[in-house]
Amino acid sequence: MGKSFQVILFFTVLILRFSSFESFSVHEMFSAAKRMINWESCDTYWIKGDLKGLQNDLKTHLFGQPLVEEDLIHALVAHFSRKTDQPLLLSFHGNAGVGKTYVVEFIAAKLLRKGMLSKYYKSYIGSEHFPLNSDTEIYKTELEETIRSVTSKCKVSLFVFDEVHRIHGDVLNKIYSIIRASKLKSENHIDLGRSIFIFISNTGGKIITDLCTTYKEQGIERKNFRLVDFENYLIQEANSEGGLKSSELIANDCIDHFIPFLPLEREHLAACVQVTMKRDNVTGIDNEQVFIESVIDAAATFEPESKKYFAKKGVKKD
């Protein structure tokens, strides 16, 4: 819908309301006009902060990730409840296709009314936005300018860094220096307020899968997994490989939560297919279960080879 049409529509509604002698305050008119011309501002209308809605989305659309459901909601509730000017730093770990970026979409949608289209949301992909080590200084300058610009407009901002294992440590160190300056309230510091930084990496995927294999063979259901059993390993992995290993973010214990995304089993893939079929209104299939199994067999391979417990790439096709 074009802006000119929106403005015309607004004044049409306005005239109709006045013609029916309904009260319409100046504040109401201005608020309606802003929303109709695609305005976005840092107020309770645009900053939803709908954590209950997020929790419901995770329960409904995210499969096989009990630790994510538990720890993520806890971290966000604590962040927005406490009196602090410090950002929340989350590190998502796991193999490809297990839901890391999927969860980011849910967070953005429930935190910001415009979701990933919000001007308070910024995302970076290591190989795309920081491809050359020789341009590290340029990346650092641009990153600081962006963070300063976004947070100056709204304290509730969301910054996402995908493929962290492909981001030079000096770029990540720039984030640390910005956070440290904010904490110390140094001259010309950036007020990070209620900002959230999410780092996404495949780092730790193997150790997560190995632990899940061990627990499965011991008869331990994933709903009974403990976050601490995974988190300690993920901290070690972050210190030994990937972009975070050479970052001050790790050396100074800046990451608030290391969140493991578990490998998916066949039942979780089946649930994903069912949701997709419902969303796309797929009907007229004689044997739905057989169809779902055929989709999984065509799209996924399983590991370990001899036992085939987990999909190697989650819901991503090989």
What does this structure look like?
By secondary structure, the protein is of the alpha/beta class. It has three domains: 1-37; 51-260, P-loop containing nucleotide triphosphate hydrolases (Rossmann fold, 3-Layer(aba) Sandwich), CATH 3.40.50; 266-311, no CATH class. It is 51% helix and 9% strand. It has 13 helices and seven strands. Helix 1 packs antiparallel against helix 2 (26-36), helix 3 packs antiparallel against helix 4 and helix 7 (136-153) packs parallel to helix 8 (169-184). The longest helix has 18 residues, at 136-153. The protein starts with a helix and ends in a 7-residue tail after the last strand. Mean pLDDT is 85; it is low at 1-5.
